[in-house]
Specification:
It is a single chain. This protein is α/β, with parallel strands linked by helices and 155 residues long. It has six helices and eight strands; from the N terminus they run αβαβαβαβαβαβββ. The strands form two sheets. Strands 2-1-3-4-5 form a five-stranded parallel sheet, with helices on both faces. Helix 4 links the parallel strand 3 and strand 4. It starts with a helix and ends with a strand.
């Protein structure tokens, strides 16, 4: 399991753009509230446009992207790798540049749509729904310790 390999992070930074920002904001609250771990949203332009990335200090860096092709998010993931931080990407595309750059990648399954209009309507909530499901990795068990998918406890 991905969560077993990552272990308990001390801090988490989530990078997203566009509609995936809504999912990232949701994940920030879920991860922070359930685990008392500081969670921050990245400023991807610091990594790409301004080329002045912050020191990440062993944070878990999560990229959220429906296409898996955002150059800004790729810059965040690449810099996190350069700083020896664990990286996880959540995307619709397994073979995307982001998925290939990250230490770990997981694919979300957006709601099926018959038309382009319906696909666009689903785009804003697809990542959010998927992250809600994926956030079961990090939750508290009955004794108050953190459980990742019921398998690993964070003390």
């Amino acid at each position: 399991e991905i969560a077993d390999q990552i272990g308990k992070p001390k801090r988490i930074m989530i990078a997203a753009r566009g509609t995936s920002d809504n999912a990232a904001r949701y994940a920030k609250y879920v991860l922070g509230a359930n685990n008392q771990i500081p969670v921050a949203l990245a400023a991807p332009s610091l990594f790409s446009v301004y080329q002045t990335p912050p020191l990440l200090n062993d944070q878990l860096v999560i990229g959220v992207s429906q296409s898996g092709e955002s150059p800004d998010l790729l810059a965040v993931i690449n810099e996190a790798n350069n700083q020896n931080c664990p990286t996880l990407v959540i995307t619709n595309q397994n073979n995307s540049p982001l998925s290939e750059a990250a230490d770990f990648a997981t694919k979300i399954r957006p709601k099926a749509a018959n038309s382009q209009k319906t696909q666009l309507q689903n785009a804003g909530t697809g990542c959010e729904r998927a992250l809600k499901h994926r956030m079961d990795w990090w939750r508290r068990g009955p004794d108050g310790t953190v459980v990742i998918r019921g398998a690993v406890r964070w003390d």
